[in-house]
Amino acid sequence: MTAAPNTTGPLQDAVADAIRTATQGAGRVNILVAGKTGVGKSTLINAVFRGELARTGAGKPVTQTTQEYTRPGHPLTIIDTRGLEVGDYGRSRAELAALIRERAASADQDRHLHVAWLCIQDSVHRVEDAEIELCGMLADAGIPVIAILTKARRNTPFADTARALLPRAKDVVAVRALPEWIDELQAELPPMGLDRLIEVTAQYIPEAQQRAYANALSTRNKQALEVKKKRAEIEVNVAAGLAASAAAAPIPFSDAFALVPIQVGMIAKIGITFGMEISTAALTTLVTSTLGSSAATLAGRSVVSGLLKLIPGAGSAVGGTIAATTAAAITKLLGNAYVTVLYDFCLRHPGQDIDIAFIKRALRERVRL
Questions:
Q1: Domains of the chain
Q2: What counts of helices (H) and strands (E) characterise the chain?
């Protein structure tokens, strides 16, 4: 009797490769944040992105007037440009121009500056010549500029003035990042404008950086969740297409190894999109907790058969093989269920890290694995 071939080793390698590819393909998004001292740049950054990225003293000096904020496992770099005050502007502008040229010359798109936030305090009701010139310089370099009126009130009349004076800005968004007590009103004004800023910024982030942008956003903001969900659904559709292609020659139901790396990569990419730290170890934990504790389980009948039960007619139609349409349906069902579970968790636990054990239980209840 001939022994069955040992496929566990190759399958484990395929799983590891899928996770590694998801990690390396996450990209990096770089946002330039410019504005005078005291306009609330750090507060704004921490309100939009996860991880309190712009903590005081946490930045790495890049030039005398520029700091870089980043951290391991976080696919976002903030370039904080100071020195827009009149006395420092000349040096700041020259150093920034050199930085833009250096990054734009890189063949690595992850080094480019992808969007710029030009922060102007709403209550000042003035756009300085330096801010107008900086907006033009950034636009000339091909960097989309979003003018942000910080510490703003709703329906601020200054927005129209800013639009007129900054015609090369892609948009002007009025934002209040934190609640603010207003003595004259004897009332506390709630945060505003963050969802719109997240949405507008997403429109100008390159496609290759969209997963990194979605990862970096804090789930405290409702629009951030919508950005994450939209990106995750794209990952599901891509994986379903790959699964259909892999199954163009019917896959034997008993092993179905060709589907495993595709589904593993999909789960890893969705995890990145919803805010998992980008590391091989973290994503391996996520994947194995979701689909099983070993490569054999990942490829076994527990995943495939559990999903087949939810596809009308698949059990009788498969007949021991998985055809292209069934492979795509299995993958899409798993992916959509995973997106729903993560979305619901983030909606109920805004700003919290993903609880992998909770996600595992919720997913298995949903697809009856």
A1: 29-216 (3.40.50.300), 224-367 (no CATH)
A2: 15, 11
